Amino acid sequence: MLHIFINIVAPVVVIAGLGALLNRVKPVEPRAISRVAIYLTSPALAFYGLANASITGTELGGLVLFFFLTTATITLFAWGVSKLLKMDQLTRSALMLSMALINVGNYGIPLNEFAFGQLGMERALVISVLSAFTANTLGVFLASWGKASKSQSLINVFKVPLPYAVVLGALINLGYLPAPQFVMRVTNLLGQAAVPVMLIMLGVQVSRVSFDGQWGLMLGASLTRLMGGAVVGFLVAALLGLTGVTRQVAIVEAAMPTAVMASVLATEFDGDSKLVSSVVLLSTLLSLITLPILLYLLMN
Q1: Strand partners, 258
Q2: All domains in the chain, ordered by first residue
Q3: In the list 16, 27, 58, 286, which could disulfide-bond 203, CB 3.0-4.6 Å?
Protein backbone atom coordinates (compact mmCIF):
# COMPACT_ATOMS: atom_id res chain seq x y z
CA MET A 1 0.00 0.00 0.00
CA LEU A 2 2.82 2.41 0.91
CA HIS A 3 4.64 1.47 -2.29
CA ILE A 4 1.52 2.28 -4.35
CA PHE A 5 1.06 5.63 -2.64
CA ILE A 6 4.72 6.69 -3.01
CA ASN A 7 5.22 5.54 -6.60
CA ILE A 8 1.79 6.09 -8.16
CA VAL A 9 -0.26 8.58 -6.16
CA ALA A 10 2.51 10.77 -4.68
CA PRO A 11 3.89 11.98 -8.06
CA VAL A 12 0.37 13.16 -8.98
CA VAL A 13 0.01 14.92 -5.61
CA VAL A 14 3.42 16.59 -5.76
CA ILE A 15 3.00 18.02 -9.27
CA ALA A 16 -0.55 19.20 -8.56
CA GLY A 17 0.68 20.61 -5.25
CA LEU A 18 3.37 22.58 -7.05
CA GLY A 19 0.67 24.01 -9.30
CA ALA A 20 -1.37 25.03 -6.24
CA LEU A 21 1.72 26.53 -4.58
CA LEU A 22 2.60 28.48 -7.71
CA ASN A 23 -0.91 29.89 -7.81
CA ARG A 24 -0.62 31.01 -4.19
CA VAL A 25 2.78 32.65 -4.64
CA LYS A 26 2.38 33.93 -8.19
CA PRO A 27 -1.33 33.86 -9.15
CA VAL A 28 -1.88 31.99 -12.40
CA GLU A 29 -4.70 32.51 -14.87
CA PRO A 30 -6.29 29.02 -15.09
CA ARG A 31 -7.82 29.70 -18.50
CA ALA A 32 -4.38 30.17 -20.07
CA ILE A 33 -3.23 26.75 -18.84
CA SER A 34 -6.53 25.08 -19.71
CA ARG A 35 -6.34 26.39 -23.27
CA VAL A 36 -2.87 24.90 -23.70
CA ALA A 37 -4.22 21.57 -22.46
CA ILE A 38 -7.50 21.67 -24.42
CA TYR A 39 -6.17 22.90 -27.76
CA LEU A 40 -2.58 21.58 -27.87
CA THR A 41 -1.22 19.00 -25.46
CA SER A 42 -4.31 16.85 -24.75
CA PRO A 43 -5.33 16.45 -28.42
CA ALA A 44 -1.72 15.60 -29.27
CA LEU A 45 -1.61 13.00 -26.50
CA ALA A 46 -4.92 11.51 -27.66
CA PHE A 47 -3.84 11.43 -31.31
CA TYR A 48 -0.39 9.94 -30.74
CA GLY A 49 -1.58 7.58 -28.00
CA LEU A 50 -4.46 6.13 -30.02
CA ALA A 51 -2.45 6.01 -33.26
CA ASN A 52 -0.03 3.69 -31.49
CA ALA A 53 -2.53 2.01 -29.17
CA SER A 54 -2.92 -1.74 -28.81
CA ILE A 55 -6.57 -1.49 -27.74
CA THR A 56 -8.99 -3.76 -29.61
CA GLY A 57 -12.44 -2.96 -30.92
CA THR A 58 -14.00 -5.19 -28.27
CA GLU A 59 -12.14 -3.38 -25.48
CA LEU A 60 -13.14 -0.01 -26.93
CA GLY A 61 -16.80 -0.99 -27.04
CA GLY A 62 -16.57 -2.32 -23.49
CA LEU A 63 -15.11 0.95 -22.20
CA VAL A 64 -17.84 2.99 -23.91
CA LEU A 65 -20.59 0.83 -22.39
CA PHE A 66 -18.86 0.82 -19.02
CA PHE A 67 -18.58 4.59 -18.86
CA PHE A 68 -22.19 5.33 -19.75
CA LEU A 69 -23.60 2.59 -17.52
CA THR A 70 -21.59 3.68 -14.46
CA THR A 71 -22.32 7.38 -15.06
CA ALA A 72 -26.05 6.71 -15.45
CA THR A 73 -26.17 4.45 -12.38
CA ILE A 74 -24.40 6.80 -9.96
CA THR A 75 -26.28 9.85 -11.28
CA LEU A 76 -29.68 8.14 -10.94
CA PHE A 77 -28.70 6.99 -7.44
CA ALA A 78 -27.98 10.62 -6.51
CA TRP A 79 -31.35 11.63 -7.96
CA GLY A 80 -33.10 8.95 -5.89
CA VAL A 81 -31.38 10.03 -2.68
CA SER A 82 -32.18 13.68 -3.34
CA LYS A 83 -35.86 12.81 -3.86
CA LEU A 84 -35.92 10.67 -0.72
CA LEU A 85 -34.40 13.47 1.36
CA LYS A 86 -36.69 16.03 -0.30
CA MET A 87 -33.87 18.30 -1.41
CA ASP A 88 -34.71 21.49 -3.25
CA GLN A 89 -34.11 21.58 -6.99
CA LEU A 90 -30.90 23.63 -6.76
CA THR A 91 -29.29 21.20 -4.30
CA ARG A 92 -30.53 18.20 -6.25
CA SER A 93 -28.97 19.42 -9.49
CA ALA A 94 -25.69 20.19 -7.68
CA LEU A 95 -25.59 16.69 -6.17
CA MET A 96 -26.26 14.99 -9.50
CA LEU A 97 -23.70 17.19 -11.24
CA SER A 98 -21.10 16.22 -8.64
CA MET A 99 -21.74 12.53 -9.35
CA ALA A 100 -21.90 12.75 -13.14
CA LEU A 101 -18.71 14.71 -13.85
CA ILE A 102 -15.54 13.00 -12.66
CA ASN A 103 -11.88 13.88 -12.96
CA VAL A 104 -10.84 11.19 -15.43
CA GLY A 105 -8.64 13.63 -17.37
CA ASN A 106 -6.06 15.72 -15.55
CA TYR A 107 -6.07 13.30 -12.59
CA GLY A 108 -7.19 9.98 -14.06
CA ILE A 109 -4.89 9.86 -17.08
CA PRO A 110 -1.59 10.39 -15.21
CA LEU A 111 -2.70 8.13 -12.34
CA ASN A 112 -3.49 5.26 -14.70
CA GLU A 113 -0.28 5.83 -16.65
CA PHE A 114 1.79 5.63 -13.46
CA ALA A 115 -0.15 2.55 -12.32
CA PHE A 116 -0.53 0.56 -15.55
CA GLY A 117 1.90 2.14 -18.01
CA GLN A 118 1.17 2.92 -21.67
CA LEU A 119 -1.76 0.50 -21.78
CA GLY A 120 -3.37 2.27 -18.85
CA MET A 121 -2.91 5.68 -20.42
CA GLU A 122 -4.48 4.56 -23.72
CA ARG A 123 -7.62 3.27 -22.02
CA ALA A 124 -7.87 6.29 -19.74
CA LEU A 125 -7.75 8.51 -22.82
CA VAL A 126 -10.85 6.79 -24.23
CA ILE A 127 -12.80 7.42 -21.03
CA SER A 128 -11.52 11.01 -20.92
CA VAL A 129 -13.01 11.70 -24.35
CA LEU A 130 -16.35 10.21 -23.28
CA SER A 131 -16.23 12.33 -20.11
CA ALA A 132 -15.62 15.51 -22.14
CA PHE A 133 -18.69 14.73 -24.23
CA THR A 134 -20.74 14.13 -21.06
CA ALA A 135 -19.56 17.42 -19.52
CA ASN A 136 -20.72 19.38 -22.56
CA THR A 137 -24.12 17.68 -22.73
CA LEU A 138 -25.40 16.09 -19.52
CA GLY A 139 -23.18 18.40 -17.43
CA VAL A 140 -24.59 21.54 -19.00
CA PHE A 141 -28.14 20.22 -18.61
CA LEU A 142 -27.67 19.38 -14.92
CA ALA A 143 -25.90 22.66 -14.16
CA SER A 144 -28.63 24.76 -15.75
CA TRP A 145 -31.51 22.38 -14.96
CA GLY A 146 -33.12 22.94 -18.35
CA LYS A 147 -32.17 26.59 -18.92
CA ALA A 148 -29.36 25.93 -21.40
CA SER A 149 -29.78 25.30 -25.10
CA LYS A 150 -29.29 21.58 -25.77
CA SER A 151 -28.23 22.27 -29.37
CA GLN A 152 -25.57 24.73 -28.20
CA SER A 153 -24.18 22.24 -25.70
CA LEU A 154 -23.83 19.67 -28.48
CA ILE A 155 -22.17 22.25 -30.75
CA ASN A 156 -19.61 23.00 -28.02
CA VAL A 157 -18.42 19.38 -28.14
CA PHE A 158 -17.27 19.90 -31.73
CA LYS A 159 -15.52 23.21 -31.06
CA VAL A 160 -12.57 21.53 -29.36
CA PRO A 161 -9.99 19.44 -31.24
CA LEU A 162 -9.97 16.39 -28.94
CA PRO A 163 -12.77 14.42 -30.70
CA TYR A 164 -11.09 14.96 -34.07
CA ALA A 165 -7.71 13.91 -32.67
CA VAL A 166 -9.29 10.71 -31.35
CA VAL A 167 -10.90 9.89 -34.71
CA LEU A 168 -7.70 10.58 -36.69
CA GLY A 169 -5.59 8.59 -34.24
CA ALA A 170 -7.99 5.65 -34.44
CA LEU A 171 -8.00 5.77 -38.28
CA ILE A 172 -4.19 5.65 -38.33
CA ASN A 173 -4.21 2.80 -35.83
CA LEU A 174 -6.64 0.82 -38.00
CA GLY A 175 -4.54 1.46 -41.14
CA TYR A 176 -7.02 3.69 -42.95
CA LEU A 177 -4.68 6.71 -42.92
CA PRO A 178 -0.89 7.03 -43.26
CA ALA A 179 1.20 8.11 -40.27
CA PRO A 180 3.58 10.88 -41.51
CA GLN A 181 6.78 10.87 -39.46
CA PHE A 182 6.73 14.67 -39.10
CA VAL A 183 3.19 14.67 -37.67
CA MET A 184 3.98 11.80 -35.32
CA ARG A 185 7.10 13.53 -33.97
CA VAL A 186 5.26 16.84 -33.40
CA THR A 187 2.34 15.17 -31.62
CA ASN A 188 4.69 12.98 -29.60
CA LEU A 189 6.57 16.03 -28.29
CA LEU A 190 3.38 17.93 -27.51
CA GLY A 191 1.80 14.85 -25.94
CA GLN A 192 4.72 14.44 -23.53
CA ALA A 193 3.79 17.82 -22.05
CA ALA A 194 0.13 16.86 -21.55
CA VAL A 195 0.40 15.04 -18.20
CA PRO A 196 2.42 17.71 -16.32
CA VAL A 197 0.26 20.48 -17.80
CA MET A 198 -2.93 18.68 -16.71
CA LEU A 199 -1.60 18.13 -13.19
CA ILE A 200 -0.45 21.74 -12.80
CA MET A 201 -3.88 22.85 -14.02
CA LEU A 202 -5.51 20.54 -11.46
CA GLY A 203 -3.46 22.10 -8.66
CA VAL A 204 -4.27 25.65 -9.76
CA GLN A 205 -7.98 24.89 -10.05
CA VAL A 206 -8.31 23.06 -6.72
CA SER A 207 -6.41 25.83 -4.91
CA ARG A 208 -9.15 28.25 -5.98
CA VAL A 209 -12.12 26.37 -4.46
CA SER A 210 -13.17 26.26 -0.82
CA PHE A 211 -15.59 24.56 1.57
CA ASP A 212 -19.03 26.07 2.09
CA GLY A 213 -19.80 24.47 5.48
CA GLN A 214 -22.48 21.86 4.56
CA TRP A 215 -20.28 19.13 5.97
CA GLY A 216 -22.84 16.33 6.13
CA LEU A 217 -23.92 16.76 2.53
CA MET A 218 -20.37 17.39 1.32
CA LEU A 219 -19.02 14.26 3.01
CA GLY A 220 -21.92 12.10 1.84
CA ALA A 221 -21.57 13.30 -1.74
CA SER A 222 -17.78 12.84 -1.72
CA LEU A 223 -17.91 9.31 -0.33
CA THR A 224 -20.67 8.37 -2.76
CA ARG A 225 -18.57 9.70 -5.63
CA LEU A 226 -15.45 7.79 -4.53
CA MET A 227 -16.63 4.60 -2.81
CA GLY A 228 -19.98 4.35 -4.57
CA GLY A 229 -18.23 4.84 -7.89
CA ALA A 230 -15.82 2.01 -7.07
CA VAL A 231 -18.64 -0.39 -6.11
CA VAL A 232 -20.61 0.43 -9.26
CA GLY A 233 -17.40 0.07 -11.28
CA PHE A 234 -16.73 -3.45 -9.95
CA LEU A 235 -20.33 -4.52 -10.65
CA VAL A 236 -20.51 -3.09 -14.19
CA ALA A 237 -17.05 -4.45 -15.09
CA ALA A 238 -18.21 -7.92 -14.02
CA LEU A 239 -21.48 -7.51 -15.95
CA LEU A 240 -19.61 -6.58 -19.14
CA GLY A 241 -16.90 -9.20 -18.66
CA LEU A 242 -14.01 -6.71 -18.70
CA THR A 243 -10.62 -8.20 -17.93
CA GLY A 244 -6.97 -7.25 -17.50
CA VAL A 245 -5.80 -3.65 -17.75
CA THR A 246 -9.08 -2.58 -19.33
CA ARG A 247 -10.96 -3.71 -16.22
CA GLN A 248 -8.44 -2.11 -13.86
CA VAL A 249 -8.45 1.26 -15.61
CA ALA A 250 -12.24 1.32 -15.96
CA ILE A 251 -12.80 0.71 -12.25
CA VAL A 252 -10.19 3.29 -11.21
CA GLU A 253 -11.77 5.88 -13.50
CA ALA A 254 -15.23 5.14 -12.05
CA ALA A 255 -13.88 5.93 -8.58
CA MET A 256 -12.25 9.27 -9.38
CA PRO A 257 -13.25 12.48 -7.52
CA THR A 258 -15.60 15.12 -8.89
CA ALA A 259 -14.14 17.14 -11.77
CA VAL A 260 -13.38 20.85 -11.45
CA MET A 261 -15.48 21.23 -14.61
CA ALA A 262 -18.56 20.58 -12.46
CA SER A 263 -17.79 23.71 -10.44
CA VAL A 264 -17.15 25.70 -13.61
CA LEU A 265 -20.52 24.69 -15.07
CA ALA A 266 -22.38 25.31 -11.81
CA THR A 267 -20.94 28.84 -11.74
CA GLU A 268 -21.67 29.50 -15.40
CA PHE A 269 -25.31 28.41 -15.21
CA ASP A 270 -26.20 29.77 -11.75
CA GLY A 271 -26.21 26.43 -9.95
CA ASP A 272 -25.12 25.78 -6.36
CA SER A 273 -21.46 26.45 -7.16
CA LYS A 274 -20.44 26.60 -3.48
CA LEU A 275 -21.68 23.07 -2.79
CA VAL A 276 -20.24 21.66 -6.01
CA SER A 277 -16.86 23.34 -5.40
CA SER A 278 -16.78 21.94 -1.87
CA VAL A 279 -17.42 18.41 -3.16
CA VAL A 280 -14.66 18.89 -5.76
CA LEU A 281 -12.15 19.81 -3.06
CA LEU A 282 -13.23 17.28 -0.42
CA SER A 283 -13.52 14.35 -2.84
CA THR A 284 -10.07 15.18 -4.27
CA LEU A 285 -8.53 15.19 -0.78
CA LEU A 286 -10.31 11.97 0.25
CA SER A 287 -9.20 10.28 -2.98
CA LEU A 288 -5.64 10.33 -1.62
CA ILE A 289 -6.90 7.67 0.82
CA THR A 290 -9.42 5.76 -1.30
CA LEU A 291 -7.47 5.45 -4.56
CA PRO A 292 -4.35 3.79 -3.08
CA ILE A 293 -6.63 1.23 -1.40
CA LEU A 294 -8.48 0.62 -4.67
CA LEU A 295 -5.23 0.28 -6.63
CA TYR A 296 -3.94 -2.20 -4.04
CA LEU A 297 -7.09 -4.33 -4.46
CA LEU A 298 -6.86 -4.23 -8.25
CA MET A 299 -3.13 -4.98 -8.46
CA ASN A 300 -3.06 -7.88 -5.98
Answers
A1: 102
A2: 2-299 (1.20.1530.20)
A3: 16
Q: What are phi and psi of 163, to 5 degrees?
A: -60, -40
pLDDT for residue 148: 45
Cα distances (angstroms) measured from residue 231 to each of 62, 74, 142, 147, 237:
18, 10, 23, 33, 10
The burial of 67, by beta-carbon neighbours within 10 Å (0-12 exposed, 13-18 middle, 19 or more buried), is given as buried
Q: How far, CA to CA in Å, does 263 sit from each of 135, 220, 260, 267, 273? A: 11, 17, 5, 6, 6
Among 162, 157, 237, which residue's Cα sits nearest to residue 194?
162
The reported pLDDT for the residue numbered 81 is 93
Sequence-separated (6 or more) residues with CB below 8 Å from residue 165:
43, 44, 46, 47, 50
CA angle 246, 223, 298 (to 5 degrees): 30
What is the separation of C-alpha 290 from the centre of its chain, rounded to a whole number of angstroms?
A: 16
Residue 220, exposed/middle/buried by CB under 10 A (0-12, 13-18, 19+)? middle
Segment 46-89, tens digit of pLDDT: 899 888 888 888 888 899 999 999 999 999 999 999 999 888 88
Q: Counting beta carbons within 10 angstroms of the beta carbon of residue 212, is it exposed (0 to 12), middle (13 to 18) or buried (19 or more)?
A: middle
Question: Which residue type is seen at 253?
Answer: E
